[in-house]
Structure formats: structure tokens, C-alpha cells
Amino acid sequence: MNQTDDIRLAERLRASDPGEREAAFVQLVDRYSQRIYWTVRKIVVSHHDADDVVQNVFLKVWHSASAFRGESGLFTWIYRIAVNESLSLVRSRRVGLFSSLDDGGASFDRIVSSEGLFDGDAAERALARAVGRLPARQRAVFTLRYWDQMPYEQMSVVLDTSVGSLKASYHHAAAKVEQWVRRDVSGADFTVCDESDDPAVPVHSCPDPVSAGGTVRSGNGTGNCEETAKK
Asked: All domains of the chain, ordered by start, with CATH?
């Protein structure tokens, strides 16, 4: 979907005709709800919580469409709302689900396994648990960069943070995640793939950044990924 289509859709969302606004909103939800859902899901983990957040996101979009001025792309604007809503939920729930992570994360593992966020592989569960241990905002940075492969310039708009600060935050998060995964999975040679400063170059070239076919994905220091057999 190109930027021109989004501009037209944004104009229709601000139309004076209620029927036109409603039709545009339905199209917007159909176009972006799945992408927003999976970003939110990676941050909040629970399917139920993700559904609630996504509903709140699109309610906010509906009620504040007139405030959209086109200073960023329409999807970037929605993305920013989604990340902020996700962070608010994570912070409010910190004493619940995520407080158990340092005690072995049993409840966290049950959600990860039962709701199909990952396929149950030990390395994947360890990765999910490690990301869950990150502070809320650092988790969002890791999610946008590692899983969504979002360029830093776009992340800067979404998170209202400088590119330099985002790079530092991502590298700190990646170091923590690597350490925790290696600790939790005996013999796992897990490395967050190295990245290029060029926003056009993806963070990793693997379609599944965690594992596939009984292997753990690891960085080879060139911006690409290679497979390392689990011991």
C-alpha cells in the first residue's frame, strides 16, 4: 500500500459525510489490524490483552482522526498509538504476569505455549521470556527493530526518540536477550544478528529469526544469519 493511498484514506476519515468516514474506517481496520495486532502481541504477549489493546488503538484512531495532519505516514501514526497503548498495559501489569519472570517464568511460559505465540521450542520460549524481562520501553524498541525490522528513522517517529538513543537502547536490549537465552537454554549458541546502519538493510535475513528445523539462528557478524546446530 503506497503513501498516496494512505493520504486519500486519511482524507476520507475526516470527511463530513458520516457514511464516507465509516467506510474509510472499515477499510483502515481491514488494511492494518493484523500488522498492528502482531506488533502489540509481541509486546504484551497475551492474545486477550493484545485484542483489547488493538480495539483501544482503533477507537483512538476513530475519535482522533481529525487530529492527523499527515506529518508522518498514516500507518506510522497508528503504529505510534499502538506502541503507546501496549507500553501502558505492560506497565500496569508489571506486578502480575511479568513479575514472575525472574522466578522461572512458569506463568509466562504457559501463555507462550498455550496461545501459540511461539511453537514451543525451548530456544523460542527462552527468547520470549528474555524479551519479557526487558523494561517496557526497551522491549518495544527490541520488538520494532528485531521482529518488525523497522528502520531507525521510522522508529524515531513512532517512539519520539532520537536515532542515536534508539540504537543504544537496541544494542543494550540485544545484549541482555543474548545473555538470558544462553543461560536458559544449555548449549544454545544464540546471537542477535548484527545489523547495518543502512535502514534499507534488514536486521536479519532469516525469515524466522529464532529457530527453524532444530537449529538456533545466530549472527555471523555480516548482517546475515547462519544456522548453528543446537547441542
From this structure: 1-93 (1.10.1740.10)
